[in-house]
């Protein structure tokens, strides 16, 4: 694990604190989730729900997750056996990779990727097979031929994150069909990271890979409360999959954490049933924040990729005369008093993302405005 040393987030957050910069680096909201949900967590603590909950998760949450999948996606998962509550999506991904991959097995991932993917694959002794998302027509996408070429005899699984962090791409049905076709042809298992499932903009729909023909039986569908309800610190996630997969993942999970914290689970069960209108408002707000930041970054001289979902905007730094995003990210606090994240750290081939930096817009309007005002100094 040596190569996974300190994450870029630790470095950039420390830099933001040291320099008093506006931090648009790390992707967490600076406002709270629905008040009634927060109150449910407090009540759960006061009511004494403070001991180990069942390993698979509190029954109320498994039931709520199952109902939510059925209502939104017409996907039926048995709350007893096909739903597993995890310590955030991060644990679900790690446990799934550890459960499914033997040493030397290969896992296809789209780069740039969420930083825990490469680490989880390494922990399993498996091998990362990156497929690069490249800009085309104002969004990031993959070449289906490159995807097919990534699959070999040792390929076991594909990790699919849509809506995608950090590019903001929401895979279209055609893109998902290409992935599903490869899974069927090569008998791959799909692990889907759908933590931004509700955070898509301009009416762009999120289509779960498991809803495509033949995919439910070979997909482990992962999501989490963190992004949906603006409680990234709660680390409450879940995985929905056919029972044999869930059993395998739970076998691993029981020795990672055994179970996830009880009070949050009850509060999230409540939120999945009663706070989806709040989430709709969050989506509307975030879309306006996306536009606010994207326009500000364009005015500051960046070439901006307006995302269809997530918390993030990709900005090409070359129009401002910079070439290397990592060097710029380290200099940006002194140049402009703003912190961003260099996208190249999310690639197996860093040179392919060298000229991008990622800005987060899940922040109060005044924070975004202050960042944009400061960034105008760059021109
Ligand atoms: C935030 C994030 C996660 C982590 O989710 P947790 O529930 O906090 O573990 C996983 N994947 C992506 C793409 C994310 O952006």
UniProtKB/TrEMBL annotation:
Belongs to the class-I pyridoxal-phosphate-dependent aminotransferase family. This is Aminotransferase. One of its GO terms (molecular function) is pyridoxal phosphate binding. CDD domains: AAT_like. The keyword Transferase applies. SUPFAM superfamilies: PLP-dependent transferases. GO terms for cellular component: cytoplasm. Residues 22-375 form the Aminotransferase class I/classII large domain. The lineage of its organism: Bacteria, Bacillati, Actinomycetota, Actinomycetes, Streptosporangiales. Its cofactor is pyridoxal 5'-phosphate. Keywords: Aminotransferase, Pyridoxal phosphate, Transferase. The keyword Cytoplasm does not apply. It comes from the Bacteria. NCBIfam families: PRK07777.1.
């Amino acid at each position: 694990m040596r190569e996974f040393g300190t994450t870029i987030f630790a470095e950039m957050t420390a830099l933001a604190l040291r320099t008093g910069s506006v931090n648009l680096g790390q992707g967490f909201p600076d406002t709270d989730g629905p008040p009634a949900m927060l109150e449910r967590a407090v009540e759960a603590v006061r009511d004494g729900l403070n001991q180990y909950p069942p390993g698979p998760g509190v029954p109320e949450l498994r039931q709520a997750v199952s109902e939510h999948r059925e209502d939104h996606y017409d996907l039926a998962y048995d709350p007893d056996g096909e739903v597993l509550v995890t310590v955030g999506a991060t644990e679900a991904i790690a446990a799934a990779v550890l459960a499914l991959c033997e040493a030397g097995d290969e896992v296809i991932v789209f780069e740039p990727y969420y930083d825990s993917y490469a680490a989880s694959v390494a922990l399993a002794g498996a091998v990362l097979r990156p497929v690069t998302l490249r800009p085309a027509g104002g969004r990031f996408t993959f070449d289906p031929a490159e995807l097919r070429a990534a699959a070999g005899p040792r390929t076991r699984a594909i990790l699919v994150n849509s809506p995608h962090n950090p590019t903001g791409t929401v895979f279209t049905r055609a893109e998902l069909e290409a992935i599903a076709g490869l899974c069927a042809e090569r008998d791959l298992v799909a692990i889907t990271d759908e933590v931004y499932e509700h955070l898509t903009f301009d009416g762009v729909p999120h289509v779960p890979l498991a809803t495509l023909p033949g995919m439910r039986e070979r997909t482990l569908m992962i999501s989490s409360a963190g992004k949906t309800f603006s409680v990234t610190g709660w680390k409450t996630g879940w995985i929905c999959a056919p029972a044999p997969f869930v059993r395998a993942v739970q076998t691993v999970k029981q020795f990672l954490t055994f179970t996830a914290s009880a009070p949050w689970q009850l509060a999230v069960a409540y939120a999945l049933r009663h706070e989806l209108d709040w989430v709709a408002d969050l989506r509307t707000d975030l879309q306006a924040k996306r536009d606010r930041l994207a326009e500000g970054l364009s005015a500051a001289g960046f070439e901006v990729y307006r995302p269809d979902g997530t918390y993030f905007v990709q900005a090409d730094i070359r129009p401002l005369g910079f070439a290397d995003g990592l060097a710029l990210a380290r200099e940006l606090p002194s140049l402009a008093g703003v912190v961003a994240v260099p996208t190249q750290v999310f690639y197996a081939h860093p040179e392919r993302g060298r000229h991008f930096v990622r800005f987060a817009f899940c922040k109060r309007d005044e924070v975004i405005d202050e960042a944009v005002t400061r960034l105008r100094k760059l021109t």
